[in-house]
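Bench log, entry 3. Co-assembly request; chain sequences pasted below exactly as received.
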Amino acid sequence: MAQANAETGSAGAAPAPSAPNHAIVKGLTVGLLQENCYLFACGRTHSAVVIDPGDNARGILRTAQQSGLHIEAIINTHAHFDHVMAVAGIKAATGAPFHLHAADLPILRELPERVRLWLDTEIDPLDDPDGYLEHGQIIHVGDEELEVRFTPGHAPGHVVFVHHAGRQVFAGDTLFQGSIGRYDLPGADRDTLLQSIREQLLTLPDDYVVYPGHGPATEIGFERQNNPYVGEGQ
Ligand SMILES: [Zn+2]
Ligand SMILES: [Zn+2]
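Structure output for the full assembly:
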């Protein structure tokens, strides 16, 4: 189930001579809903964060270990069950603190009910986060920086993480290749989602690579042109 698509450096076609990208990105597709979990790390210090550990804590930990990465924090785009099922396992193994936007607390707290509904399984509730993410916050991962942008609509406390030096964005369930996140779930809103994508994602340069929470990576410019929900032809 785990698919490790190692990817370093130059995302997209345009060179970024003034900002060499030494970050390491490793993706794993986990769980029943095929959620994309990413390890994002500094290539020099090997400090790493886990973005959206949705399932398969063991596989995520093994990937980190094989790559010599030290997991220092868990940061989530949002709290839907398919993005948080491995949070407890990663925390237990590494002691890494878990960070989430406060507006997704209600979603996190109803995790056992959601999992019962979707997976017909009983799980323990998750502890509240150790810290809260805010729009404009900069997360330091070794020498690298991730900018937090608040992008509600799919979930009330959804955020994305922009790595400007690497020209890439970890978009969770906002913008997908040729699609967008669901807006029919509790706490979701279509207009809010469209506004978030237009103002926080499509304002990024064309060559920024989008690493979504489901499905293949894409590019901002491609989606700006072709996306049936937010593309220019719509
Ligand atoms: Zn979601
Ligand atoms: Zn999802």
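The chain has seven helices and 15 strands. The pocket of zinc ion (ligand 1) is lined by residues 78, 80, 154-155, 173 (CB under 6 Å).
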